[in-house]
Amino acid sequence: MSTWIAVALVCAATLLVGALGLRLSRTTSDFYVASRMVSPRWNASAIGGEYISGASFLGVAGLIFATGSDMLWYSIGYTAGYLVLLALVAAPLRRSGAYTLPDFAQIRLRSAGVRRVTAVLVVGIGWLYLLPQFLGAGLALRTATGAPGWVGTAIAVLVVVANVTAGGMRSVTFVQAFQYWLKLTAIALPVVLLLIAWHSDGSPSPASVPGSAWSEPLSGGDHPVYRTYSLLLALLFGTMGLPHVLVRLYTNPDGRAARRTVLSVIALLGAFYLFPPVYGALGRIYAGDLLDSPDSMMLLLPGRMLGEPWGDLATALLTAGAFAAFLSTSSGLTISVAGVLSQDLLRGRFRTSVSGFRVGAALAVLVPATLSLLGVRTGLADTVTLAFALAASTFCPLLVLGIWWRGLTRAGALAGLVVGGLLASAAVLLTVSGAVSSGWPAALLGQPAAWTVPSAFLVMVVVSLRTRRTPGVNTIMVRLHAPEALDLNRGDHPTPP
């Protein structure tokens, strides 16, 4: 019962906080980018709220528990990716004046073809990232209460659609900032109780539990060195290509505020990722029989270590935090996909842009929600990692070369996006389908970023060198890199497609 109450409170708080944003959402700019008036501290909390997904809250602890110390790279990579974003993308992207990634592609390359391909990739990455959120919501509620998996999925879908369609980005900003601190509290407080219980009963360290290779780096699976480097490449460069992360930079007042936002995010994420490894280590001692269902370990661990009522209360708090993770990340993804759908696929079909945005939000959740209800099952962190690899193989080259190299052409960008997208998508489909399970093929397809990202960069550069440069590129580069103190027209309203 305590778990149901906790989930109900999280959903109610989400809707109530979103209602505050609804009172302030009046214009199209409010719905898409919160009128570009979000302060760095508030925006950093919102990014932390949407970035810490179910894969972070449950999946990272589950991977460390099941696989060992190699999985600590997830926590490091998820956080360090913002250093790359800070150095290469944050301020110029905000200065572009875009609403969405397709907007940026059109501003930089003035190509409807590149815009359409970018829009398709945004939707594909968003759906691939949304699927584990809805699956995780069903898993969390089923593990904690025994309810059918579809119940948790349905609750998450309804709350997300209600929040996004009611107030757009402004509502979601308030909700995600609130949910970051809820998630940090939910994961931190039970750790204190669990560590006290572990210290009190004199249990051994995780390294002394049978299967000690768990604590040794690079000791498990096929080709662990390759997998580690490819994973880090996906996480470091995939972060800058995640649509729901990038759309947040558009909400800052200027490029300097965007940089300050990203710097604050690094601190907030660093604080959160201190805790999943503790759950993974304690799970090796007290929940070794759950290795076949690692994503549920974190929710079941308090019941094994703590007596009544503390075990139930800790489980309820963790379930509430996990549910907040699914809701906040799903909201950010829905915003980014809805913005692209409404501008590129539904434009002109509705009386107002806000109406198109609301329909786009409903369509954004339809496909992943249907797949989750049809019984598609994937590991939370594994699926999210593949989404990172797809983003790193497409948007990372587009943004880095588009921002820092005048020589990028329409043909080069289009060729690189298509090649990187096809290679990464093929790897995703073959991995999820289980077509290969061991050896080099499994390593290369399971962690494809090490070869898909260089391939996309190479194709963009080679084709660009052989084709004509985009007209007016010097003016665009000045717009991206000139300080805000200069009186320039930065095109805050991008040219319609």
Give the low-confidence spans. Answer: 491-497
| Percentage of residues in strands | under 5%
Percentage of residues assigned to helices: over 70%
Strands, total number: 0
Element order: H for helix, E for strand: HHHHHHHHHHHHHHHHHHHHH
Largest sheet: none
Rounded radius of gyration (Å):
22 Å
> Mean pLDDT, rounded to whole units?
84
Structural class: mainly alpha
Distance between the termini: 51 Å
Which features characterize this protein?
single chain, 497 residues, mainly alpha
Written overview of the protein:
This protein has helices at residues 2-22, 28-33, 40-51, 54-67, 72-88, 90-95, 101-109, 112-145, 149-201, 224-238, 243-249, 255-272, 276-286, 297-305, 310-345, 353-373, 380-404, 410-433, 439-446, 449-465, 473-481. By secondary structure, the protein is mainly alpha-helical. The radius of gyration is 22 Å and the shape is globular.
What's a concise summary of this model?
The chain contains 21 helices and no strands.
What's the structural blueprint in terms of helices and strands?
Blueprint: H1 2-22, H2 28-33, H3 40-51, H4 54-67, H5 72-88, H6 90-95, H7 101-109, H8 112-145, H9 149-201, H10 224-238, H11 243-249, H12 255-272, H13 276-286, H14 297-305, H15 310-345, H16 353-373, H17 380-404, H18 410-433, H19 439-446, H20 449-465, H21 473-481
Helix pairs in contact: 1-9, 1-15, 3-9, 3-11, 3-12, 4-13, 4-15, 4-17, 5-10, 5-12, 7-8, 8-9, 8-15, 8-16, 8-17, 8-18, 9-13, 9-15, 9-16, 10-17, 10-20, 11-15, 13-14, 14-15, 15-16, 17-18, 17-20, 18-19, 18-20
